[in-house]
Amino acid sequence: MIAVEDIFLAYFDCRRNKRGTASALEFEVNYEENLLRLLDEVNDRTYKPSQSIAFIVTKPRRREIFAANFRDRVLHHLIDLKLRPLIERELVNTTCNNRLGKGTEACVMYVEDFIRECSENYDKDCWVCKMDMQGFFMSINKPLLINMITDFVDANYSGDDREDVKWVLKIILSDRPELNCVLKSPVSEWEPLDKNKSLFHIDGNLGLPIGNLISQLMVNYYLNEFDHYVKEELGFNYYTRYVDDFVLVHRDKDKILHAIPLMREKLKEVGVILHPKKFYLQHYSKGVDIVGSVVKPGRTYTGNRVVRNAFIAVRDVNKMKSTPANAAKLCCVVNSYLGFLKHRAAYNIRRKLAGIIDHKWHEYIYIDDNYFKVWLQKQYRERNIIQDKLIKQRNNGLTKNNQRKRGQNTGTKAVAQSNGLPKG
Q: Above 50 in pLDDT, residue 422?
């Protein structure tokens, strides 16, 4: 059985940096009772995932996102806490997606270092190859993944709750959130999206929802054998991957060309296809665009597409009516780009981006001096608004209970006096 302390640890891990969301606050009001109920559902084998929220994001490219309910995310973190240390030991060092101390910045850094080392500090020729996997998340075979991860748990996890962990994994990974969700984007937003990039249009045995922690953890393991194959059997020491994008650097261009069909066949074993059009092979001096940054000899800068999208996004938000809710959206949009730009030498870009924010928003926001972040004024933050609302609801409930108790006590005293008993 899953232990009580484990579910509480998962909850505290889950709510970190997420306490301002509506579902997190609603859960937090009676979190002890909610956690114990969730624990009973897992240990009784009656747990079922709750309703998800589905929406479309358009930047940097159009994607379908499913956000799990907070109570489900607690279980995602439970699995993550138990299995991540074991999975981390299996991964190649240069896999960057959803790993502590890594991410897009680490991926860019690896490419910079690979080019510098392979070219012997830009003195020798070498080639950079970048490839992409087509409709990656939607092509993941769920029954195959479940078999892979349960075998891994059997072989590597020694906890007393091993069978419970496997059961939770099976329930989460086999879930079809598209059958039980609330659409937060208009249906028209799905129309431009390719059918092979939406859970609504693919086989129910395929695809993981983008946006869930458990999905990110599982895809790393799903492609782990491929990563080892490229580095160890094909001999590409200069190799890094971020989700479905990967980069090879090598002195021999022909070796890269020879390896491509081999990599394609290896990926077919897990149902993944290399994108036929997204293929890049150039001399390192031409530079390579990877996860929004362009790496060239001796310098790295933010890709033009990211900068262009940032300015378009802010101008689009400027067209909205100035309300606290829309100001919160503005902060999310601007901060998503500022957070990326702060890793590059892009002070002027950050300053110009902050400069085009319409003055009508300044009633609700403020910007830090280095243009690293836009902040929503405290009184307009969703967390504070929802928290005040929940506190009022709880206080009203307590007031009603106290009034009811006073009424009961008054009735009891009246009966006591009518029977000649002391008032106390």
A: no
The most confident of 337-341, 351-355, 402-406, 414-418, by mean pLDDT: 351-355
DSSP bridge pairs for 242: 245
C-alpha to C-alpha distance for 175 and 169, rounded to whole angstroms: 10
C-alpha to C-alpha distance for 27 and 150, rounded to whole angstroms: 30
User: What is the pTM assigned to this prediction?
Assistant: 0.80
Measured over the CA atoms of residue 389, residue 181, residue 73 and residue 59, the dihedral's sign is negative
The tokens for 419 are 């029977």
Taking alpha carbons only, the member of 129, 99, 111 closest to residue 291 is 111
| pLDDT for residue 302 is more than 50 | yes
Please give the Cα distance from 148 to 130 (Å, whole number). Answer: 27
Give the Cα separation of 76 and 50 in Å (integer): 13
Quick one: DSSP state of residue 189? G
Structure tokens given for 310: 């940032």
| 6-12 contacts, C-beta under 8 A, 24 or more apart | 6/78, 6/81, 6/82, 6/161, 7/35, 7/36, 7/38, 7/39, 7/42, 7/74, 7/78, 8/35, 9/78, 9/81, 10/74, 10/75, 10/77, 10/78, 10/81, 11/35, 11/74, 11/77
Provide φ and ψ at 408, rounded to 5°.
-65, -40
**165 and 83 Cβ atoms separated by less than 8 Å:** yes
- Which ranges in 178-241 belong to alpha helices (H)? 213-222, 224-228
Q: What is the DSSP string of 256-268?
A: HHHHHHHHHHHHH
Q: Is 282 helix (H, G, I), strand (E, B) or coil?
A: strand
Residue 419 has a pLDDT of 46
pLDDT tens by residue, 4-22: 999 999 999 998 867 667 7
**Are residues 1 and 36 in contact, defined by beta-carbon separation less than 8 angstroms?**
no
Supply 293's token pair: 């940054």
Please give the full DSSP string across 233-260, using - where no structure is assigned. IS--SSEEEETTEEEEEES-HHHHHHHH
The 10s digit of each residue's pLDDT in 90-146 is: 999 999 998 988 888 899 999 999 999 999 999 999 999 999 999 899 999 999 999
Q: Which residues of 113-138 are buried (b: 16+ CB within 10 A; e: fewer)?
A: ebbbebbeeeeeebbbbbbbbbbbbb
List the alpha helices (DSSP H) in 239-364.
253-268, 304-318, 324-341, 347-355
Within a 10 A sphere around the Cβ of 392, how many other Cβ atoms?
Answer: 10
Rg of the chain taking only CA atoms, in angstroms: 26
